[in-house]
Write a structure and sequence with these properties.
With 296 residues, the chain is an alpha+beta fold. It has 3 domains: 61 residues, no CATH class; 83 residues, Ribosomal protein L1/L10, rRNA-binding domain (Ribulose 1,5 Bisphosphate Carboxylase/Oxygenase), CATH 3.30.190.20; 87 residues, 3-Layer(aba) Sandwich (Rossmann fold), CATH 3.40.50.790. The strands form 4 sheets. It has a 5-stranded antiparallel sheet with strand order 3-2-1-5-4, covered by helices on one side. Strands 13-6-14-15 form a 4-stranded antiparallel sheet, with helices on one face. It is globular and about 50 Å long.
Length: 296
């Protein structure tokens, strides 16, 4: 275990917002070793470590804890986040450079976060599943289908969204092959309240097995806004193998936007894992046609 404490140094004139970017630095003491964490982690520290206290007179923010293990976890969390930030920025830059230097594509390449886990037994441990809405839409051309009542089908047509009514669903006749084909055709589904209740009876368990059970849309919501929300949402789901991949951006986005999406995706993934970072074996970023770039 690492015995120690952390001190946040900042300018006393910045007391209203001592954690803003560019103010001060974090010093982590591990025994006699002094490690300085650059100020780019200010936002991370203030959000993730809410028990930080600071003193106006000394101009120091002290983070102390009696348990050595907590100090160790804090130090590791800060160091890992710093490593990740640098690696992610380099990977994004590398993907963009590779795209510019190779033959122009007729499509915009998607950026995927590829995840390898460790110390997890899919047979014994709970298989986690969770979704998070990213700040920027990673796949603008994501195919979505509205399983709607008459009003929603009409709204879908107006915004150019694929749709199916109850009669069209009945024609599938619960045929497993046809339902599977439907599930493969679209990335996600939306459904009206009156229709979503009938999905199991009309289609069987096919969409649910594919991990694409429809998201409910009420008539009080904007259908277009719901579509954009769905496009911005990514899902992490552990199945039988300790690896997975999710779309976190595309090469048509700004570097800052890609970074924000990756950062939120990784932080959310880690929050789902039973031992957080200790369950992460590796992380890669890869564009559709480019080589993988390891970021952790």
């Amino acid at each position: 275990m690492i015995a120690g404490f952390a001190t946040w140094e900042f300018d006393p004139t910045e007391l209203e917002n001592p954690f803003r970017e560019g103010v001060g630095s974090v010093h982590m003491w591990q025994g006699t070793e002094d490690r300085i964490i650059p100020s780019e982690l200010n936002q991370y520290v203030s959000k993730k470590l809410p028990w930080i206290k600071y003193h106006e007179l000394s101009g120091y923010g002290h983070l102390l804890h009696a348990e050595e293990q907590i100090c160790e976890d804090i130090i590791k969390a800060l160091l890992v986040d710093k490593l990740q930030s640098e690696a992610v920025r380099e990977a994004i830059s590398s993907m963009i450079t590779h795209c510019k230097e190779t033959k122009p594509r007729k499509f915009t390449e998607t950026i995927e976060l590829q995840i390898g886990l460790k110390n997890y037994d899919p047979q014994k441990d709970k298989r986690f599943s969770g979704s998070v809405k990213l700040p920027h839409i990673p796949r603008p051309k994501m195919k979505i289908c509205m399983l709607g009542d008459a009003q929603h089908v009409e709204e879908a047509e107006k915004i150019g969204l694929d749709s199916m009514d109850v009669e069209a669903l009945k024609k599938l006749n619960k045929n497993k092959k046809l339902v599977k084909k439907l599930a493969k055709k679209f990335h996600a589904f939306l459904a009206s309240e009156s229709v979503i209740k009938q999905i199991p009876r009309l289609l069987g368990p096919g969409l649910n097995k594919a991990g694409k059970f429809p998201t409910l849309v009420s008539h009080q919501e904007s259908l277009e806004a719901k579509v954009n929300e769905t496009k911005a949402t990514v899902k992490f789901q552990l199945k039988k193998v300790l690896c997975m991949g999710v779309a976190v951006g595309n090469l048509g986005m700004e570097e800052k936007q890609i970074f924000q999406n990756v950062q939120m995706s990784v932080n959310f993934l880690v929050s789902l894992l039973k031992k957080n970072w200790q369950n992460v074996r590796c992380l890669y970023l890869k564009s559709t046609m480019g080589p993988p770039n390891r970021v952790f």
